[in-house]
C-alpha cells in the first residue's frame, strides 16, 4: 500500500468513526429525552393547564419543556389543549414563549460532555448558552409587546384563517427513525432484565444516555479535529462565514427535516468545542433552527381546528419576529454572543456556577415563580 492509499484509508476510517460516534451521540440525546419524558410528561401536562396568568405561563413553558426536553412535545400538548378548548389561544402564547427557552436545556447539557477539558468546555458552553440568551432576549422584547398589543395573537388568527382550508401533512423525522431501534433496544433490555420501579428504570436509562453522550462527544470531537481542521477554514469561509442568510437557511432546512432544534444545536456544540466553528458564525444557524422547528408543527397543525392552527402560526411568527428585530442590528445581535462568551469564561473558572446556571435557569427559577403564584393566589 503506497502513501496515497494509506492516507485515503486513514481518512475513510475517520469518516466512518465520526458517523458511528455521531449516531451514538444522537441515540444518547433521544435516550435522554425518552428518560425525561418518562419522568415528567404527566407532570408537564398538569403544569400547562394550571394557570391563566401570562407571566406564570411563561415559566410553566420553560419548566415543562426543560423536564421533557422537547419544545415540539410541549407545543404539541399546547396545540391539543387549545384545540380541545382546555386552553385559550391567549393563555397558550406565553407557554409557547417559555417552551422556546426551555428547549435549549438539551444542548446546554450536551456541552457538559466537555467539562473535563477546559478550553473545549469554554467554547462548547458558550455555544450552547448563546441559544438560551437569544431566546431569552426575544422573550424580553416580545412578551411586553404581546401583553400590550396582542400582536402575536392577531397575526396567528390572521394566518390561520388564510391557511385553514389547505390541509396538513404528517412529517416523520428521519433522525428519529434511524435512532428509534437503538432507543427501543436499550429501553427493552433495561425493562426486561431489571425489575424495579418506573422512576428507577428511567434513572438507569438516563445514566446510560449520559454515558453514551460523554463517550461519543469525546471521540467525535477528537476524530473531527484530526479530519477536518485543515480544510474547515476553506469550507466555512465559502459557506457560513461569508453568507449568514445561507447559514440561517441551512439551519432552518436541517431542523425542519429532523424536526428538532435540539438536534441541530446539539450537533453544533462539538463543532464549536473543537474550534472548527466560531460563535459568531454558528449564531445564524441557531436562528434558522428556531424557525425550522416550527415549520413541521405548523404543517401538521393544518389538519386540526382553527385554534390549534393559530397557536402553530403564533410559534412561527414569534421566532421570525425575534430574528427580524435582533439580527439586523449589529449592536443588539452581539448581545447573546458577548454574554455567552462572558458567562462561559466565568463558569469555566468556577465549575459550580455551571450547575447553578442550569438548575437555576431551567428548573429552580420557574419552580419558585410557579410556587409563589400559587401561594399568592390563595
- Could you report the average pLDDT, rounded to the nearest whole number? 82
Helix/strand order: HHHHHHHHHHHHHHH
Shape: globular
Level of helix content?
A: over 70%
Q: Biggest sheet: strands, sense, closure?
A: none
Distance N terminus to C terminus?
Answer: 79 Å
Number of strands: 0
Strand percentage, roughly? under 5%
The poorly predicted ranges are none
Strand pairing plus helix content: what structural class? mainly alpha
CA radius of gyration is 21 Å
Structural domain count? 1
Give the helix tally.
15
In short:
Helix content is 85%, strand content 0%. With 378 residues, it is mostly helical.
Topology summary:
Elements: H1 3-48, H2 54-68, H3 71-84, H4 89-102, H5 105-111, H6 118-149, H7 151-163, H8 174-193, H9 198-241, H10 244-258, H11 261-273, H12 279-301, H13 306-326, H14 330-349, H15 352-377
Q: How would you characterize the overall build of this protein?
A:
Helix content is 85%, strand content 0%. The chain is mostly helical and 378 residues long. It is globular.
Describe this protein with a few key phrases.
mainly alpha; 15 helices; 85% helix; 378 residues
Amino acid at each position: 500500500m503506497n502513501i496515497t492509499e494509506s492516507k485515503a484509508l486513514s481518512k475513510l476510517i475517520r469518516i466512518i468513526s465520526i458517523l458511528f460516534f455521531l449516531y451514538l451521540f444522537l441515540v444518547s440525546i433521544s435516550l435522554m429525552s425518552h428518560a425525561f419524558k418518562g419522568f415528567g410528561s404527566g407532570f408537564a401536562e398538569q403544569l400547562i393547564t394550571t394557570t391563566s396568568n401570562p407571566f406564570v405561563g411563561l415559566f410553566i413553558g420553560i419548566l415543562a419543556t426543560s423536564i421533557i426536553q422537547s419544545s415540539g412535545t410541549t407545543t404539541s400538548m399546547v396545540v391539543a389543549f387549545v384545540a380541545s378548548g382546555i386552553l385559550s389561544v391567549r393563555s397558550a402564547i406565553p407557554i409557547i414563549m417559555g417552551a422556546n427557552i426551555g428547549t435549549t436545556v438539551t444542548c446546554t447539557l450536551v456541552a457538559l460532555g466537555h467539562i473535563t477539558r477546559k478550553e473545549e468546555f469554554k467554547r462548547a458552553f458558550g455555544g450552547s448558552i448563546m441559544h438560551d440568551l437569544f431566546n431569552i432576549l426575544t422573550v424580553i422584547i416580545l412578551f411586553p409587546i404581546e401583553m400590550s398589543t396582542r400582536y402575536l395573537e392577531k397575526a396567528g388568527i390572521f394566518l390561520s384563517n388564510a391557511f385553514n382550508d389547505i390541509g396538513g401533512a404528517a412529517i416523520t423525522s428521519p433522525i428519529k427513525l434511524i435512532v428509534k431501534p437503538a432507543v427501543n433496544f436499550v429501553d427493552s433490555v433495561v425493562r426486561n432484565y431489571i425489575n424495579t420501579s418506573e422512576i428507577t428504570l428511567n434513572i438507569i436509562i438516563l445514566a446510560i444516555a449520559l454515558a453514551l453522550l460523554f463517550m461519543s462527544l469525546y471521540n467525535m470531537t477528537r476524530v473531527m479535529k484530526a479530519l477536518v481542521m485543515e480544510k474547515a477554514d476553506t469550507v466555512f469561509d465559502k459557506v457560513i462565514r461569508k453568507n449568514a442568510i445561507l447559514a440561517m437557511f441551512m439551519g432552518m432546512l436541517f431542523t425542519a427535516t429532523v424536526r428538532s432544534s435540539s438536534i441541530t444545536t446539539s450537533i453544533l456544540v462539538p463543532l464549536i468545542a473543537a474550534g472548527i466553528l466560531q460563535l459568531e458564525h454558528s449564531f445564524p444557524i441557531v436562528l434558522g433552527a428556531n424557525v425550522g422547528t416550527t415549520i413541521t408543527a405548523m404543517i401538521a397543525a393544518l389538519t386540526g381546528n382553527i385554534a390549534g392552527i393559530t397557536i402553530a402560526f403564533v410559534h412561527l411568527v414569534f421566532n421570525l419576529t425575534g430574528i427580524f428585530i435582533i439580527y439586523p442590528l449589529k449592536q443588539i445581535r452581539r448581545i447573546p454572543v458577548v454574554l455567552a462568551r462572558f458567562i462561559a469564561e466565568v463558569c469555566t473558572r468556577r465549575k459550580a456556577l455551571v450547575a447553578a446556571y442550569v438548575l437555576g435557569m431551567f428548573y429552580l427559577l420557574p419552580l419558585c415563580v410557579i410556587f409563589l403564584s400559587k401561594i399568592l393566589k390563595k
